UniProtKB/TrEMBL annotation:
Keywords: Signal. Belongs to the bacterial solute-binding protein SsuA/TauA family. Residues 1-17 form the signal peptide. This is ABC transporter substrate-binding protein. InterPro entries: SsuA/THI5 (IPR015168). Residues 35-234 form the SsuA/THI5-like domain. Pfam families: NMT1 (PF09084). It is found in: Periplasm.
């Protein structure tokens, strides 16, 4: 289902708050948003939520920084870059943690039983992204040297199939395509080094609307309970929002690697600190390596804590 702007207006306009422009695109990672929409929780709370879609979380984040939207959904990596460059935004929630990050190999090229099998190999990934961070961190922790080959996301699987590279680290949306293309030659390694977080960031203007932001997050916390209580209904809602392009059974299989629940915890903060240090080390952004306190300043837990105190576990 494609959106440009969708107004949720079951309540009379006079009863609604000012519109909240929410940059969110239907995806498999955030079923609580689908459930909140399907159950009318935003409407019931008197919120006028208007969806604005973007091709990527990075574009949604840029729209947030430019004042075009009030709340943006994205993976955490752009926020690390935004913090380093002193952008004006706040992380207000962590919706989902993904535990299935993997390195994919071709059995015709090399075994892939451990990271040491990658020593001296050619590995394709997309430089300057969270998958680059994942690969770099995994190789460094294992003390493995390899040749990193930069490629666009859509070119990685074909390169592996052709044998141009020995392994790839693509975005998760390409995992199934790699398995389909390689068939019996498909190999994967899950080193457990990196768990992406799918977060919500708010604009400075939205932070001044604290009651509405708290109400918005409260609707998602309410939907979290629905997802936990009836995962099949949640998968049906997500599949419907994706126009049936991802079947319920496929979603349920994918969700084995996802931890849902609107929260803010130290694992997100630790990851952002690590990513920011890596970005500086790679020379992507010229800045001092930030401290934990520097990055923590970009996380604003108050609205979520007001909606669900147990959801915030930051020290």
């Amino acid at each position: 289902m494609k959106h440009t702007i969708l107004a949720l207006s079951l309540f009379p306009a006079a009863a609604m708050a000012d519109p909240i422009a929410f940059a969110w695109t239907p995806n498999p990672q955030t079923p609580q948003v689908d459930m909140a929409l399907a159950q009318g929780y935003f409407d019931e709370a008197g919120l006028d939520v208007r969806l604005v879609t973007f091709a990527s979380g990075r574009e949604a984040f840029e729209a947030l920084l430019g004042g075009q939207v009030d709340i943006a959904f994205m993976a955490e990596f752009p926020a690390a870059t935004g913090a380093l460059t002193g952008q004006n935004f706040a992380i207000v929630a962590d919706l989902t943690r993904y535990t299935g990050s993997r390195i994919i190999g071709n059995s015709d090229r090399s075994p892939l039983d451990s990271l040491t099998d990658l020593e001296g190999k050619r590995i394709g990934t997309t430089l300057g992204t969270n998958v680059d961070y994942f690969l770099s961190t995994a190789l460094a922790e294992a003390g493995v040297g390899a040749e990193i080959v930069n490629a666009a996301p859509g070119d990685l699987v074909p390169a592996l199939v052709r044998g141009d590279v020995d392994a790839i680290v693509p975005f998760p949306t390409f995992y199934q395509g790699a398995q389909d293309a390689l068939g019996d030659r498909y190999l994967e390694l899950r080193p457990g080094i990196y768990d992406p977080h799918y977060i919500l960031a708010a604009s400075p203007a939205m932070l001044t609307r604290e009651d509405e932001l708290t109400t918005f997050l409260g609707a998602l916390v309410r939907a979290d309970a629905d997802v936990a209580a009836d995962p099949e209904a949640a998968a049906e809602a997500v599949s419907a929002s994706l126009s049936g392009n991802v079947p319920v059974a496929t979603l349920q299989e994918m969700w084995a690697d996802m931890e849902f629940g609107t929260s803010l915890g130290p694992d997100l903060l630790d990851l952002l600190v690590s990513e920011a240090a890596w970005i500086v080390g790679q020379g992507v952004v010229r800045a001092e390596v930030p401290t934990t306190e520097d990055i923590a300043a970009f996380i604003v837990p108050g609205p979520l804590a007001a909606a669900a105190p147990d959801a915030v576990t930051l020290d």
